[in-house]
Every structure is written in structure tokens, then in C-alpha cells.
TrEMBL record:
SUPFAM superfamilies: NAD(P)-binding Rossmann-fold domains (SSF51735)
Matching Pfam families: 2-Hacid_dh_C
InterPro entries to which the protein is assigned, alphabetical: D-isomer_DH_NAD-bd (IPR006140), NAD(P)-bd_dom_sf (IPR036291)
Record's keyword terms, sorted: NAD, Oxidoreductase, Pyruvate
Gene Ontology molecular-function annotations: NAD binding; oxidoreductase activity
Superkingdom of the source species: Bacteria
PANTHER family named among the record's database cross-references: 2-HACID_DH_C DOMAIN-CONTAINING PROTEIN, D-ISOMER SPECIFIC 2-HYDROXYACID DEHYDROGENASE NAD-BINDING DOMAIN-CONTAINING PROTEIN
Every D-isomer specific 2-hydroxyacid dehydrogenase NAD-binding domain range: 104-276
Protein's organism: Muricoccus nepalensis
Keyword Iron in annotation: no
Name the UniProt record assigns to this protein: Glyoxylate/hydroxypyruvate reductase A
Keyword NAD attributed: yes
Length: 311
């Protein structure tokens, strides 16, 4: 049995219906269904389970995260660490994240925020910048599945692309920087900094005053990873001083972004509600169904969380 624990009774049922269709024989149930027995649960599909809930499932074989990030699961101190934790994968999340990053970089380049404000005030604001994408370097922090998918899309628009990761990468047309020792050189390249890192103790608060000061003056910033990566007062200070010319933010701490946050009304900030890469439900259900099929046939589970790396 697979238990689905996500918000909304109708949504839970939709997941169960899809999983049952894609893997006939798999009994998928909303976690709160009358016949959902914790001791029979072999798999769960979840986003942010209440702390302690996973620990109450004694016979789990795998946990499937609805998202590529799993911090909403691993922040539960009681989550069963001996159970494999599968991060969402497949092709669609990369395509969608690439689209979001491309849009965010272009909206920074082509003054999207200024035009949206001008339109809301019925103002004809003529503004054409000097640069084209070909004049700019996008620096992607986090060259994993999503960063690697975004890079060629940016290249296709004409941007130069640099990537920073823990280990060196060979992605065509992308200058690779690796580890803490190469972070400053990477930052010095970036006209637009894009954060696609996982949330780990090492990456918490990484986009702070010190880091922002190392970017080229007037750089843009895009955060589509996790809210805790960016220190909001430092971000606002960099925007106000002109060190940053603009920011596009999809993720916040907490979410939803509280109404009193200065980010909502900041003239240089575009806010989106954690929508950068939400793959279609059917595609995600297919990924889970295929992973279970492979696992039950004796193969390995894909895209596993590594407790040593923390992502
Ligand atoms: P991956 O695990 O595939 O990639 C993570 C990348 O970050 C890797 O390149 C890794 O390096 C690098 N990295 C991790 N820690 C460090 C570090 N300390 N220093 C330098 N580089 C580091 O993850 P994904 O690409 O699939 O996803 C990235 C994140 O995006 C997710 O964790 C999630 O938080 C966020 N996300 C946001 C979504 C949204 O809609 N806004 C949707 C989906 C995901 P290496 O390659 O060397 O291991
Ligand atoms: C995430 C996701 O991890 O939506 O944010 O996949």
C-alpha cells in the first residue's frame, strides 16, 4: 500500500487515482482513508508531513517526495533515516525550471517589474537598456538536475553561463567552478546570480551581504531554490544601494510570504509563489509508479537523498 499525504482531500484522491491507473496492482490510499492502515504502508508520497507521522509507519520501504527538495521532510527530527528517500525527478521539472530561470533573467534584462508598475499606474515609461543577453553572464549556483537543465536554455538566449557546484562539471558551453575555494571567482563573473542550491546547513544564508558585495555592481538575483538561502535584510540593502539592480524571488521563509514582508512592494523585486518548477501531476505520478516498478523488480531507486551530503 502507498499512502498519499498532501494538502486537500480531493488532491489526495487524484494522486491515488493516477497512481492506481499507472501502476495497476498498487493500492494507493489517502493517508486518512478508513482502510489506510499504517502498518500496511510500504510507500508514501508526501510534501510536508506533520512531524512524527512518518515515524509511525513501521514497514516503509521508500518515501517519495513530491518535490525535488526534501528539506520539508528531513526537518522532522523523527523521520525514519533508514528508509530510502526519493527526490522528485524526471524531465519535466528541468524544463519548467529552465523556463522560469530564462523568464526571470529576461524580465530583469527587459525591465519587466518597471513596466508592470508603469502599466498599473497608466504611465508610458519608455525604457530600453544597453545590454542584450549576449553581453551578460548568468551564474548558476547549484549545477544539479535543474541547473544543468536551465544552462542550455540560457545559452540559447545568448547568455554566457557559469556554474558553481560542490564538484566540477562538464556541461557544454558552461564555465564550471567548484567548491568554496572557487566561489569568489564565480561570483565575480555573474551579471545575474541564480540560486538553485538545495537547502543544507552549508547553504543556509549563503546569499548574504558579504556574497552580494562580490557580485558585479548592478547585478540581478534570482532565487528559485529555497527561502533560507537568502538573508532578506541583506538583499533589501543591496537592492536599495544599487549593488543589485533587481531580484526575482520564487521561494521564501516562511511560505506563504507574510503580508508585512517588504519584498511584496519593493520596486525592484518580482515575487512569484513557489511555482518555478511544478511538474504536471501525471508526470510526477508516472515517475513514482516507474520507480516502484523498477524497485519491485529488484532495481535501485532513483534520485536518492544522500544523508552525508545532505541533499
Ligand atoms: P540536485 O541535488 O540535482 O543539485 C544540487 C546542486 O547543488 C548540485 O550541483 C550540488 O553540487 C550543488 N551543491 C549542493 N551543496 C553545495 C555546496 N555546499 N556548495 C556548492 N554546491 C553545492 O538538486 P536539483 O537541481 O534537483 O534541485 C535544486 C533545488 O531546487 C532543490 O533542492 C530545491 O530546493 C529547489 N527546487 C525549487 C523548486 C521551485 O519550484 N522553486 C522546484 C524544485 C526544486 P554537486 O553537483 O557537486 O553535488
Ligand atoms: C520543490 C519542488 O522542491 O517543488 O520545491 O519540487
Amino acid at each position: 500500500m502507498l499512502l498519499v499525504k498532501v494538502e486537500g482531500a480531493r488532491t489526495r484522491q487524484l494522486w491515488c487515482d493516477l497512481l492506481g491507473e499507472l501502476r495497476p496492482g498498487l493500492v494507493a490510499r489517502p493517508f486518512d482513508a478508513p482502510d489506510a492502515r499504517p502498518e500496511e504502508a510500504r510507500y508514501v508520497l508526501t510534501w510536508a508531513p506533520a512531524p512524527g507521522w512518518l515515524a509511525g509507519l513501521p514497514n516503509l520501504r521508500a518515501i517519495f517526495s513530491l518535490g525535488a527538495g526534501v528539506d520539508h521532510i528531513t526537518t522532522d527530527p523523527t523521520w525514519p533515516r533508514h528508509v530510502p528517500l526519493v527526490r522528485m525527478g524526471g524531465e519535466e521539472p528541468g524544463q519548467r525550471m529552465g523556463e522560469y530561470v530564462a523568464w526571470a533573467c529576461l524580465t530583469l534584462l527587459r525591465h519587466g517589474r518597471d513596466f508592470a508598475r508603469a502599466q498599473a499606474e497608466r504611465r508610458w515609461e519608455y525604457k530600453v537598456g544597453e545590454d542584450t543577453a549576449r553581453d551578460l553572464t548568468v551564474g548558476i549556483m547549484g549545477m544539479g538536475a535543474l541547473g544543468a537543465a536551465a544552462a542550455p536554455m540560457l545559452r540559447g538566449l545568448g547568455y554566457r553561463v557559469a556554474g558553481w557546484s560542490r564538484t566540477r562539471k562538464a556541461v557544454e558551453g558552461v564555465e564550471s567552478f567548484a567548491g568554496a575555494g572557487e566561489l569568489d571567482a564565480f561570483l565575480a563573473r555573474a551579471d545575474v546570480l541564480v540560486c538553485l542550491l538545495p537547502a543544507t546547513p552549508e547553504t543556509a544564508g549563503i546569499v548574504n551581504r558579504e556574497l552580494l558585495a562580490k557580485l558585479r555592481p548592478g547585478a540581478g538575483f534570482v532565487n528559485a531554490a529555497r527561502g533560507p538561502h537568502a538573508v532578506v535584510p541583506d538583499l533589501v540593502a543591496a537592492l536599495d544601494s544599487g549593488q543589485l539592480s533587481g531580484a526575482v524571488l520564487d521561494v521564501f521563509d516562511p511560505e506563504p510570504l507574510p503580508a508585512e514582508s517588504p519584498l511584496w512592494s519593493h520596486p525592484k523585486v518580482t515575487v512569484t509563489p513557489h511555482v518555478a518548477s511544478v511538474a504536471r501531476r501525471r508526470e510526477r505520478a508516472r515517475y513514482v509508479a516507474e520507480a516502484i516498478a523498477g524497485f519491485e523488480a529488484g532495481g535501485p531507486l532513483p534520485n536518492l537523498y544522500d544523508p552525508v551530503r545532505g541533499y
